[in-house]
Amino acid sequence: MTWLITGGAGYIGAHVARVMAGAGERVVALDDLTAGVPARLSADVPLTEGSTLDAGVLKRVFAEHEVTGVVHLAARKQVGESVAQPTRYYRENVGGLATLLEAVAEAGIGRFVFSSSAAVYGNPDVDLITEDTPCAPVNPYGETKLAGEWLVRAAGRAHGISTVCLRYFNVAGAAAPELADTGVFNIVPMVFDRLTRDEAPRIFGDDYPTPDGTCVRDYIHVADLAEAHLAAARRLGQDAGTGDLTVNIGRGEGVSVRELVTLIGEITGDARPAVVEGRRPGDAPRAVASAALAERELGWTARRGVRETVESAWQGWLLHHGGRAADRTTTGRTTG
Ligand SMILES: NC(=O)c1ccc[n+]([C@@H]2O[C@H](COP(=O)([O-])OP(=O)(O)OC[C@H]3O[C@@H](n4cnc5c(N)ncnc54)[C@H](O)[C@@H]3O)[C@@H](O)[C@H]2O)c1
After folding, report:
1. What are phi and psi of 306, to 5 degrees?
2. Ligand 1 test: best mutation among 16, 34, 249, most atoms within 8 Å of CB?
3. Which of 189, 210, 214, 326: CA 20 to 30 A from 6?
4. How far apart are CA 59 and CA 42, in angstroms?
């Protein structure tokens, strides 16, 4: 089998490529390099620069590498940007997926893994989110992921493609510092960014109905997430032509923002107190996965804890954002 990883030069895609290639799968990557970094990919993973919106390049890559399965991660992923530019998000995330699925069907490829997100659920008021929790996304990004799932399942049924949709919860960390997320869109890099600027971390709201009043999330190490893709690919490898599966990918354990900020303080050696600001619109008090279905259907569970996740993220931050943070960490540890 040969797997095409779209968005393969991205943060998660490069981890998926590394895990799948390391497990002996043949892997090739496609990325338009709008956010991707080719150096994240090892020499045994050929990269084609191109877009999922370009049917010609897809056809060429499928033929050239005799692709038999696709792991589709290429997408725009910023919630705020999706609110400001909804048509772009629908065109690129949903339109790109439609073009890709047409090319997949035409090439007779029978296996497809789709990067979905916990954003499809919106803000459900439940202790653990199961795959049966109703989907009600609260921003265009989440809508494109939900519409994407519908499209994947419908195309799968119409064209005999076996599909798996993976709904990721809060992804963080890095398998190696050079693979780290360089963007500052999620809470872990946002806190690192504040500390690097010599500013206190911010907590948005401490009056939620949670044990310490701050929002609770499910943080998953990107290396565990990559292993979930391998498990999904292996399942499809055995069962091509037998339907669809949609699963949560999380640890099934909640960590509050305050707990996370405290942990980051310990790991960075900069434990300055956080400042509490008002709630941000749209933040759910709690979003924690039920991880039971992934274990049952994929034989996969997360192996890495939150401390390991944050430590690896910090090593990546030091590599990419360098000097000043590194100096202060040393100081913090020495004086701490
Ligand atoms: N990072 C998270 O916390 C998170 C959570 C849930 C879901 N996801 C999903 O996981 C996937 C990967 O996210 P990431 O964090 O690695 O983001 P990323 O931006 O690092 O990776 C996306 C990659 O896709 C490429 N790309 C974007 N549009 C493309 C297109 N039309 N054609 C070809 N390449 C294209 C970009 O250049 C980039 O390399 C996305 O689908 C995202 O929505 C991410």
Report:
1. -70, -35
2. 34
3. 189
4. 24
The pair of three-digit structure tokens given for residue 174, joined into one six-digit string: 């890095």
Query: Distance (Å, rounded) from C-alpha 63 to C-alpha 167?
Result: 30
Q: Report the pLDDT value the prediction gives residue 331, as an integer from 0 to 100.
A: 32
pLDDT tens column, 170-187: 999 999 999 999 999 999
Is the Cβ atom of 96 under 6 angstroms away from ligand 1? yes
Alpha helix ranges (H) inside 23-177: 55-65, 79-84, 86-89, 96-106, 140-159
Q: Is 141 tagged catalytic?
A: yes
Are 131 and 248 spatial neighbours (Cβ–Cβ below 8 Å)? yes
Backbone angles phi, psi at 167, to 5 degrees: -95, 100
Substitution candidate for ligand 1 out of 6, 12, 117, 178 with most atoms within 8 A of CB: 12
**List 89, 141, 168, 219, catalytic entry:** 141
Tens-place pLDDT, residues 211-235 = 999 999 999 999 999 999 999 999 9
Helix (H, G, I), strand (E, B) or coil at 242: coil
Distances (CA, A) of 256 to 253, 285, 308: 10, 9, 16
Task: Report whether residue 115 contacts ligand 1, using a CB cutoff of 6 Å.
Answer: yes
Measured CA to CA, the distance from residue 270 to residue 293 in angstroms comes to 38
pTM of the model: 0.95
Three-class SS of residue 223? Answer: helix
